[in-house]
Amino acid sequence: MFKWKTDEFSWVDFTIDILRILIVLGVVVGAWNTLSSGRISFAQWVNLFAAGLSQGSIYALIALGYTLVYGILLMINFAHGEVFMAGAFSTVFLAEALNRTGFLNEQPLLAILLMIMFAGLVSMTVAILLERVAYRPLRGSPRLVPLITAIGASFFLQYTFRGLYGSGFKAYPQVRILQGAISIGDINIPVVQVFVFGSALVLMLGLYWLVERTRVGKAMRAVSENKEVARLMGIDIDWVIMFTFGVGGFLAGSAGVINGMFRPQGVNFFMGFIPGIKAFTAAVLGGIGNIPGAMLGGLFLGVIEAIGPNLVLAGLGIPGANQLKDVIAFTMLVLVLIFRPQGILGERLSEQKA
Amino acid sequence: MALLEVNDIHTYYGNIHALKGVSFEVDTGEIIALIGSNGAGKTTTLRTISGLMEPREGAVYYEDEDISNTRADLLVSKGISMVPEGRGVFAKLTVEENLDMGAYIRRDSGIKDDLAGAFELFPRLEERKKQVAGTLSGGEQQMLAIARALMSKPRLLLLDEPSMGLAPVLVDGVFDTIQRIANEGVTILLVEQNAHMALQIADRGYVLQSGEVAISDTAANLQQNETVQKTYLGID
Fold it and tell me: From the list B50, B92, B97, which residue is nearest A232 (CB)?
């Protein structure tokens, strides 16, 4: 960890080592204070952890979209938060309609499945159009160019949806079977959290199967490794890239509905921004371009966000620690970029990829 | 009728004029060798035929159809398959998955049999079929690259420097394999720096020099040709 044997003294290394020591000290002292004060009971820790896993599985689903696209094009699709928003926002109207007819509470599982499919298809369409219109014409241009385009596309999508549906907040209707909690001893886990984690798990397993087992999944991996040789195999790489955007979009759209069940309020045209950046953080955390990394990074970020403020910040005597969870998330991003830029599961980027 | 006819093609890398009017023909069932030194345009010629590059002038005809501007991935289903320079195996995919990718364009039921056929041709690959290709030795990767190219059932196989970077013992094996593939009826266009080996199995050969065909003759005559002997076979 420390470089005692460096030939020359370097202020950068020195500062980074000091930073490391301070962080470790801060975490240890904060955690020690909190745990020794016994302010938070075991059951409460379990609750925080479960809530963190739920939030994290939503981050993970969005993060997969970043990582899939990065894996194949080495490009960060910064409009991906808006792809998530598009599915979540459009499906509010379907959810309201299903709620009015009563179908939502009569056949809740079917209704939710329908909503997830619908949101997935909307987001998939948005992602595919984004690729076709905004990114494909710029393929092969310097890497800054599609990045700027992504920001532009992001604004375009936000204000298109504001134009379509207005700037007010909308809410997903309550689904009766998702209310209540499952009790084990004195631990109460809300049913909705089980639903969020479970459905995210199913989607992630589906993705894993797609990428590892199917013909098109193998083609995605082949294209991500070597586009020219992939063409020599007869693979239409434009189609595979479009498909990849579509899969990422589908996952983001489903995350939109799952998020709507978890946090019903807060659906508006700007809702994709923060989850988008958080999911990007998660993808970097896990190792961008690495699929299990994005899943792990998302869950990890969700849990850290839920537990970190209470464990460390509160222990250090920082008031209103729970409101500082965004600080934790983005501090994680900075720390990962300083100490382990390749992420948890990422391999060191070669010159060509970096 | 020539299976492949390359007619006066000019190919550029940006402003660099790499091929300055290359013409040659490959008949069905032949093994044709393209020999020449580094930078003579051998690889560029193959890349132009396979659709990875487009000629700025001239045309490539395959079964009398102009394929000069056809995308590489579409040419695979027409029966052209290429083993790229440096093998180009997918290092993170397993041996079996690499072979699956070779059969990407096919949806027929014969794929399983052909997979078995590939393993018969290269038993080493069967032993390692679950291993990722990046862990194979250079020789095994070359076997995999050739086996993968055959999985699309090509009628014309383009081979770019199959002996490059291989130990001399393995080189003999690679050329034996090429001969066996040709015996099965696949037409072969072979690019090689190892002119000695290439001319031993080829029917005819073309010598490329600075982007042009300098000499064309039967392989037997090329082996006796003084210039070829001096420049490419190292015989004084």
Answer: B50
